[in-house]
Amino acid sequence: MEINPLRIKKLGIDTHQQPIVYIRSDCPLCRSEGFNALSRLRLTCENTSIIATLNVVSTDSILKVNQVGVSNIAAELLEVCNGDVVTLSHPKPLQSLGYLRSKIYGQRLNAQGMKSIVDDIAADRYADVQLAAFITACVDKGLDTEEVGLLTRAMTEVGERLSWEDKIIVDKHCVGGLPGNRTSPIIVAIVAACGLTMPKTSSRAITSPAGTADCMEVLAPVSLDLDQMKSVIEKEGACIVWGGSVNLSPADDALIRVERALDLDSEGQLVASVLSKKLAAGSSHVVIDIPVGPTAKVRDQDMADRLSAQLRDVGRSLGLQVDIVLSDGSQPVGYGIGPALEAEDVLAVLSNDSGAPLDLRMRALQLAGRLLETAGVCELGKGYAKAEAVLNTGLAYKKFIAICEAQGGFSLPPAAEYSHPVFAERDGLVTHIDNRILARLAKFAGAPAAKSAGIKILVHLGEKVEKETLLFTLYSESVGELNYALDYMRASEGAVVVGNERV
Amino acid sequence: MEINPLRIKKLGIDTHQQPIVYIRSDCPLCRSEGFNALSRLRLTCENTSIIATLNVVSTDSILKVNQVGVSNIAAELLEVCNGDVVTLSHPKPLQSLGYLRSKIYGQRLNAQGMKSIVDDIAADRYADVQLAAFITACVDKGLDTEEVGLLTRAMTEVGERLSWEDKIIVDKHCVGGLPGNRTSPIIVAIVAACGLTMPKTSSRAITSPAGTADCMEVLAPVSLDLDQMKSVIEKEGACIVWGGSVNLSPADDALIRVERALDLDSEGQLVASVLSKKLAAGSSHVVIDIPVGPTAKVRDQDMADRLSAQLRDVGRSLGLQVDIVLSDGSQPVGYGIGPALEAEDVLAVLSNDSGAPLDLRMRALQLAGRLLETAGVCELGKGYAKAEAVLNTGLAYKKFIAICEAQGGFSLPPAAEYSHPVFAERDGLVTHIDNRILARLAKFAGAPAAKSAGIKILVHLGEKVEKETLLFTLYSESVGELNYALDYMRASEGAVVVGNERV
Questions:
Q1: Is B354 on the interface with A (CB under 8 A)?
Q2: Neighbours of B217 (CB within 10 A)
Q3: ipTM of this predicted structure
């Protein structure tokens, strides 16, 4: 029996990173191979193969009988055009699923098991439900420190790795959870102005209204490939690019996508995610900022100590010097929450604007100072002053603009079309600011996908306000999103509480 | 600004139970509401609303700009036709996700938390990744006995519940893992012939080559709705139908689908799945068969004891008398593995065929006897003989055919088009039969989707064979599947081992 070859049809459907293949239920091959909906199957075009989840198509409205539909990511991974010949087959069962199963049942993973899982994740061979199971099984006590080390190493090895001529390569990371804490662009500018090499890759938001990459993107292109990133660093000594596009930790990208859908951000995954990217970027010295506060991601000293120890231990075991700074996580930093609003704060600090948020400035100087000390640019205890001098003289601003230009061109942050001011309903003191509610509000308003959406908060804890004082303003790019945020605000009291005394 | 109404287009895409909605990226509403790929959103048509996962469509090949595409399950839940007007909005955050999160972090769930999760699952409000996270978090020690009771109660309450005039309603369940152990149709026929009421609902395969519903379906229709099921029982006192179509445990159906994709089958979920359906069916007395063997689902006495205790305890707390029978799980039961091949064995036993598998007959008689004793039809110790008499006289066969006719008509099992015999390569004794490898072989050959696919195994443990003795035969409905099974067989030694002495 002669079977006509199956041909690709790109359906233009965005299924994120999970490749989906669409086949007619009456396609001869579907019959003869016994495929059915949600099967996993192998697609091969010339020399490229991928594993995709099958959706069976029961009518002829979107596919002809000899056509195989592919989602955007499937088409991209296969590097195919419409009409290309494709063959389908049953994939071999993934060896790593045995390891995944043992982890779900609470057993420890060895190096081989961890590597096997991470390799399959990085190659997009896991279905979303399998990623969700792995993430869930690794939450909390799911991974011990040694396993986190194995996960970190496996995630580092599976992606690209950079190497540099300098022996000292610095980097900085913040574990997040504190809205508006956008110190990275300022720190990069300061330490690069002092001659250090800092290949900064940043992530997009996981569960927050903006990641550094989201914020930086409103000021300059961040989706650089590895060669472009290298040339920026050769020219300016530093960069601030999106980690996802330089492929330093492809497994992490897949994990983060599902963590975001689950609204989970586990400790072990966090350590592995942070350190694997620093290692892959070729860093030798890293300062990690851990904001601690009742509504920050790290809520108390116990959790901060546990996380610090794990970051240091795992770093040491992999040859990376990790320096921890615990910072105040009781309230947002700066005024803006959301990509463009945070970018405005960054620019204000860098340009020594008189209205620049002082808290953001001081945090950036502290962390930059620590990096300058760690890297031996100045003596212990003199880093802050050195960083401040570089900022005050305008050298840091100049360096920042140069980096933006090297990345493709500097631009000013966009402004939002819609806004809604929220006023104090009484005289009193600001007794409580809830980071989580503010972050959710900013997200409901559209951040980070809508760049100019978010919140501008003008008051601080303990501040005296009068009735009708502006507490914060909501910004959005659409009426629907603004209303959604307002609905949420009405349903959840306590984003900013004005009372008689500080709680 | 006037916005044209959005209209439904059924795309005919089978995404199983996860509703997917497809929207053009340039659709005005998509812009104004800030939706992006993998958002969860609410679709409303007239008075019906569902929550679906969004796939953004970037070209105009499958949708016009004012069209909203829906997958099969989304169309079914919404009860829509092409062209119906649909409105889209952001869904309210699910309250139950807070409980899910606490379970993932190892906290106990209370009744309210469990009910909240199960209600959302039953209403198809969970994305597949959220189902996967819940299943993973509940594996092994993830649920204690009290939580399993809460889960069982919540799963019972969320679906339909049957009630009967008789006080004693019997039922039977096998926890599975033993290929070919298809006693249910035989037991139902025997106890119904003795005048007992047995509203048997069966499941389709989770990780095995056939469930009782898959097997029974080759003999009679099993996808009956609740009214049809009731009328069969009014007429014949018993039925053997697929539980999924009578909606006795809608949450279980969603969980089983993802458990299957993950190849997981956890203890707590198993207990809740089994007992919730018995409770919903209105049963008062249940006999549960637990096959124990090194390659069965329950591998040792410890696990059997733990599972028995949990089934009894949870049953008692919910007013259900649970009687456990531990049986030999060291080798397959009967000759057939796969829907049609197992159905042949069932018919052979019921019709007292001289070639009927004796092990299947004896197991069915033992369990039927236990039910007859438990229900007070005969004295303790006399159940087996009573069951045997009913089988021998042909009353059970007559009752079985009557039940099949009442369900829509009896038919004979289909035969497979392709087969491949496997012979002994030496003289010796059958020293090992691996249930897991045999089950996988049958699945790779196409079972249970391909009804006549599977394995017919003719030898038993300890049996003396000669070189070239037929050990088993592989059956399939397609060349592709047969080859896939053969590939797997070559790669994994030890489905049936012929050696010098029994291990």
A1: no
A2: 24
A3: 0.79
